[in-house]
Amino acid sequence: MSEITNNELAKRLRQHEETITQLVEIVAATNHKLAELDKKLSENTHSASLT
User: Fold this and answer.
1) How many other C-beta atoms lie within 10 A of the C-beta of residue 19?
2) How far lies 7's CA from each of 4, 14, 19, 27, 47, in Å?
3) What is the pLDDT of residues 21-36, one digit of tens each?
4) What is the spatial distance between Cα 13 and Cα 23, in angstroms, rounded to a whole number?
5) Residue 10 Cα distances to 7, 15, 16, 19, 22, angstroms
6) Could you name the domain of life of the organism this protein comes from (predicted)?
7) DSSP secondary-structure letter at 35?
8) Strand, coil or helix: what is 4?
9) DSSP E strands, 1-51
């Protein structure tokens, strides 16, 4: 097995950090969209029950 240098480890760590950051941003955007859809659905359901 080849030995991994500190520079290679640092590069891999940065790549993982970037990937994690992207995934967190995707989850946040998805949660925001879901919250908006839930709000619209609740408003539509409330409006329908009033008629």
Assistant:
1) 10
2) 8, 11, 18, 30, 60
3) 999 999 999 999 999 9
4) 15
5) 5, 9, 10, 14, 18
6) Bacteria
7) H
8) coil
9) none
